[in-house]
Amino acid sequence: MFYINRIVTCNISWSKFQQDYMDELTNVLECLQRVYFDANGEAKKLDRSVNNEFSNWVNEIYRFGWKVLGSKPIASFDSEKIIGHRKNGLCVLNHMGSFRSIFEWVYSEYFKENNENGIKIPIALIPISGLEIGNTEIVSNEFEAVVRHLSIISPINITHPFILVGFSHKPQLGQPELIEIPSATVGPAAINKTIEFPPEYRHAGITILSNFSSLVRDKYKDSNVKVSIQQEKDKVILIIESDEGVLERIEETLQTYGLVLSGKAPVEDLTNDPFKIAELNQQIRIAQMQLENQKELLAIEQRHNRQLEDKNMSIKSQYKEMIGIFNDSIKSKDKENTFLRTLIKSSTTTQSETAKSALNTLIGILEKDNGKGDNAEVAKNLEEIKVNDPTAFAKIKGFAESCAAGVVGNSLYSWIVPIINSLAK
Predict the structure, then answer these.
(1) CATH number of the domain encompassing residue 93
(2) The whole model's pTM is what?
């Protein structure tokens, strides 16, 4: 049996979708069920080739009146050309066992507003990590990796809605987890930083975040800026909403704030107002007092392993460690975002089919959970991009140069830099 565990939405409310299209989604899941399970709910013994699975899927979904959507000329079972199957304004893609790039699919011209195919909402069915059918684990572009990379490039520059359905063989307790991917074209842009403080640092951590919120409101009082702090168990989430140009300056202020807290930059880099400087120094002292108080409380409770190990740690050392956690969490990922955006944009604009295929292969590699791939395969595809679309390769080379200049540092994608450099000579 298959169960919906997680839902990703963009430019559409999940509750609104359920009201309008739940019958169609139930229909699609039934088709998927028929491909892999018999009438008694037992897993079928299937040829594990992608083509065989896809053929079975097409046969099932045709029975329910779904029509093929894809580039022409097209064969009914050509998985490379088929974008999905459409019905009642929906287009569904079965991503089971597939390594096709979700990014290429999401940005497809078939889904643009007022498209000639009448598609209102594209939906992709993507297996959750560890999905098993019978005793066989299904290896594919896993849902978690896709979500991680969507969050890196968000807010995404897209106007049409889409939904990603993460499913597995394990039933979900309660309602499926909902993940909303912001669009750059809907509402204000946002900075979203999640910091996971150990219990003894949480109160002091909230204090330094609250002080930053006050600093931002004062520094950008003439701009439309909204700052909020949310708590989810040990996680503290800082959310700042404003216009994109203002957010870029706030992001720089946040990085500077971290440097000031760690003693690596003077407080004057943040403000020249003597009252604000005094207030910041006072907030730092308050945070240190909170560390001391929380340390004593945890020592009394004696139920936190970490506290037992660090009970003799000085407040100065604790403060330094807490600020280290803060700075690691607020590091800008702009260069990572730029690299992935470069690949996606190049894939959608290149005139070379060979380069497009190579770019989509690289995106697929980055979508994998560990973000790494076979070096020979990566080099082969980079070489094809270099030969068939020099402009796209120049942009990729620019990422490598920024790494060499120390801009990216320990980037998620820094492993690919030596491969790029070897081809750039």
Answers:
(1) 3.40.91.20
(2) 0.58
